[in-house]
């Protein structure tokens, strides 16, 4: 991990902490999800551009002259604006922040979701089908959602982990939740489970 990636992770962690504090202690003006998603969109745009330049550099290293290197680099750069709402960082943040700031809207699509184009919807559906348990790194089958932080795990895996170590914190990197994972705060996400089944039947 380079310095830029490390700093971006710190910013993401700080943003998660800010959202949690706003949800607990802030007034209504601080609970507007758009205040925070606009910042995450900028982070995702930086991340996408960084990956684009990194890929272009890797493709250009084989060139023998500076002129050829420059030409190859320029042609390898993707000039299109990144689709940040399909970015994993963006989706993870919305999944974390939305139920904290707007508990009454949990499970409902946000306005930002409705603004995405059809290609974005396909990316989202494909990503749902590819969701993996953060502990075992295997595809989710029976997803349970942690009510403390809204992160999702495979039911049998997290239950076994809690049996081995009751003082387990959320295994998702950068999670801002305080305290340990509590068995009684884990709930099977039936809606997500149905999405997984439906999406995998389409993409297989």
TrEMBL record:
Domain of life from the UniProt record: Eukaryota
Location in the cell: Nucleus
Alphabetically ordered keywords of this record: Metal-binding, Nucleus, Transferase, Ubl conjugation pathway, Zinc, Zinc-finger
Residue stretches of biased makeup (Acidic residues): 113-123
Region of interest: Disordered: 101-123
InterPro entries reported in the protein's UniProt record: Nse2(Mms21) (IPR026846), Znf_MIZ (IPR004181), Znf_RING/FYVE/PHD (IPR013083)
GO biological process, one term: protein sumoylation
Protein name (record): E3 SUMO-protein ligase NSE2
The species this protein was found in: Anopheles gambiae
Gene this protein is translated from: 5667039
